[in-house]
Batch of 2 targets.
Target 1
Amino acid sequence: MKKIFSIVVILLLSAAFLSAQDINLNPAQPKKKNKVDGGLYLKGGISWLMSDSKSFLSSNKAKLTYGFGATMDWNFSQNFSLNITAGLTNLGGTTEFKYGLIDLKDIDDKLIPTSNDTLTHSYKYSTTYIDVPIGIKGCTNEIGYFTYFLKLGIDPMVRIKSKITPETKEVFIITKSTNLFNIGWFVGGGAEWTLAGNTKLLFEIGYLGTFFDFDKIDTWKGENKPEQRFDPRIKFNDISLKVGVIF
C-alpha cells in the first residue's frame, strides 16, 4: 500500500509541474471553463459504524481511513458540473456485540473464536472498496484565485477485501462474510486554488453514509435463548479530507 501511495504522490506532483506552463497573465479576468476537467487526489479521515439494532450492539471507536483516485468534472455551465470520481476507499470502525457473534469464519472457512469468550465481543472492522461517486457540483466564479464549491451525490461501492480484529488482536480476513456491493450518499464542499493556467490544488471535506448492511454475520438476541439469532444492519459513516491536483 505504501508503494501505491508513493506512486500517486509522484503523479500528483508531475501533473502540477507539467500543467503549470500555461500561465494566466490576467487572473482578474474570468476564464472560460474547459468542457472537461480532471485530476488526481489523496484522502484521509475517520469512519465509524452505526446500526438500527442498538439493543444488541454499539459503536465505540472510530477508525482512521484512507483513499485515492481520479476525479472528473463535466462542466455543463459556468457554475454547475457533473462530478464523477473513481478510486479506492477504506472504511471501518469498532463495534461491541452484547451477546457475541455466531459462526464467524475467515476466508478459508475456519471458525473464528467469538461468543464463548466475553473478551471477544468487541471487533474492529476494516473494509476496502472500489467506489465510483457520482454527483452534482455547484461552484462560484473564481474569487482571488479561489473557486468554492458544494456537491451532493451517490456512491456505488464494490468490496475487494474485508478484515476483522477481535480484542485478542489477531487479524482475520473475512471477505466472504461481507456483502460484495454497497451504496452510499455523500455531501461535500471545498475550494480549488488556481496555481497557473488550468492547474489547481483541490481541498475538499466530505461526509459519506452508506444505505445497506455491509456484512452477513449473525449475533444472538439474548443470553438465555441462543436459538434466537439475527443479522443486525451495520452501516458505515465517514468524514474525510481530500487533497489533489486538477489539470
Target 2
Amino acid sequence: MLLWILIGVIFLIAEILTTSFFIVFFGLAAFTIAAICSIWLLQLPMQIGGFAVLALLYLLVFRRLFKKRKVKAVTDFSDTSLIGEIGLIQEDVPSSGYGKVLVRDTYWRAVSNQNLGKGTKVKIINQQNLTLEVQVL
C-alpha cells in the first residue's frame, strides 16, 4: 500500500513538472490501488494489472470530460473580435467616463451612454482598441 502511495506521489510530481495532463491519471490509479490494497490483500500481479486497467480507464473517461470543458483562449484582438460578447461590469461606468468590464477572462476599459453599476450584465456593442462600448442586456 505505501509503495502505491509513493508511486502516486511521484506521478503527481511529474505531472506538476510537465503539465501534460496525462501523467495525473497514473497517479490517480496508483492512489486507487493503494486504497483497494488497504481493504483487500491482493497479489502483486493483480495490483499491477489493476493499476494498468484503472490508469487506462481514468485516461479515457476523465481526459475526454476535461477536454470538453476547456475554455477557448482569446487569440483574435481585432477591433471587432468582442462585439456581441457578454460581459460583467467590475467597476462602475459613469455615462461621461470610463469603468471596467470583465469579458471572458480579461478586464477591459468600458464606456457607455448610461450609468452602469458594478455587477451589471452587459453586451459589447463596439470596440475601439482596448476600450469596449457596452449596453445593458
